[in-house]
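Session log. Operator J.P. requested a structure for one protein chain; no other inputs attached. Running the standard single-chain path with token output.
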Amino acid sequence: MLDTQILAAIPSPPQGVWQLGPITLRAYALCILAAIVVAVWWTIRRYVGRGGRAETVIDAAIAAVPAGIVGGRIYHVITDNHLYFGEGRDWVDAFKITNGGLGIWGAVIGGGLAVWAVLAYKKVPLAPFADAVAPPILLAQGIGRLGNWFNQELYGGESDAPWALEIYRRVDEDGNIDQMDGASDGFVLATVQPTFLYELLWNLLIVLVLVWADRRFRLGGGRVFMLYVAGYTFGRFFIELMRTDSATTVFGDIRINTVVSAVVFVAAMALATAGSMAPNMDNRTREEPEYVFGPPVEGEDGEDADTAGTDGTDDTAGTAASGTGTESADGASAASEDAEDSTRR
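Structure written below.
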């Protein structure tokens, strides 16, 4: 424990696991579930506002959620393999995902590949979906960081700042130390930099920036997604420099996530400024609703096409930017005509 008297600090939750009879409730898992629900709900609003179908989001989520969790876990186990393999380690722990440990890079890759496969099967363009899902994904990442708070993980070095985080000693019913499943006995092991909180706040800031930029400039071609990646990795780079928890290092003592953040940031900025994920379109403008809607599905009677894009919502408040309602209505009509032409062809 620090010798310096701490006048104010952020408390950690006394425990992150609760037993309700035969049911074990883990805060980390509950945070992930809450993040998924929020992300899907908001993505539907944004994607429908661009002219897409709500069911496309549901289908993509059904594939992306498990793929993202598996991808995130694989990345974590590979980069932090020392936690699961070697002397004194039990490799079975690699499958205990509720204990924490999801790498965002693996989650994005796994979930992204699943979404790409679903959209390719449906013959729906990827770029508008990517732009719609970007802010919700980042908000979900922020919610997920609350799970790290309950698990008392992802923190930095010791600190006596007013916003320092208290790390409690947790014990089981027999009084044995159990930092993962135990409950606090009131003893403060250390007060540390709450890097999980820094990342959460940074994520929320970038979410606001993305929503503003998307509304102000009517971004398209996957640029919102690329800006999400660039904004997130920029902050993550500096946050990683503050973290002191055990991690795989490269080039001496540089954390691997620091290197990955830098590389991905450069790549995302290059793509955001020089290219587009959508072929044959003006890189600086948002796609028309009929393009987002895609071809008619088998058995479709045109009802969805008549309503696609009329919502016009693409932000948290659910309110349309000025003029988008008319544009969306016009786009819905064009989508219906395009669907008929496509059927005739």
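Operator note: Residues 26-157+193-327 form one domain.
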